[in-house]
Amino acid sequence: MPLVVLTGPIIAAGQSLSDAIDVNGDMVRITMPAGWTPANLTFQISTDGEGYNDLFNPLGQEIMLPVVPGTAVIVPVEMTRAIRFIKFRSGRRDFPVVQEEQRDFAVAVQQAAPPQARRSVK
Question: What is the residue-wise DSSP string for 61-120?
Fold first, then answer.
């Protein structure tokens, strides 16, 4: 399974929610921007890239990652296995934190290997 690093998403200066990114695989790592207005990271997800929902676990808790600026964060695959499109939020959904400057992320995605061509047996 190849590892692909995607550029984005991006939280614009003066905003708390990023644009969307199509992960098309299992998100396994997030590279955090070096400059970061202190806040945890939360998420919105979508299956079609149109309608987004806040990401919660089965216990009704918002999925939240603590942030250390300029580091890489390993993401448990079970947390992101069912995600196609994702947005990053600075802060919690009830308490978003505006980022003072543009914040660019990088996301590493484990993508499924293409199916091997089938051989006919004669």
Answer: -B--B---TT-EEE--HHHHTT-SEEEEEEB-SSSB---SS-EEEEEEEEPPPPPPPPPP
Interval 51-97: pLDDT, tens: 999 999 899 999 999 989 999 999 887 777 778 999 999 999 999 99
Output the pTM of the full model.
0.88
Q: Prior bond to 9 cis, omega within 30?
A: yes
Q: How far is CA 57 from CA 40, 49, 106, in A?
A: 16, 21, 23
Give the class (CATH, top level) of 3-110.
mainly beta
Domain boundaries, the chain: 3-110
Angle (CA) 99-103-104 rounded to 5° is: 165
Do the beta carbons of residue 89 and residue 43 sit within 8 Å? yes
Q: How far apart are CA 60 and CA 57, in angstroms?
A: 6
Q: Which residue do the tokens 């919660």 mark? A: 56
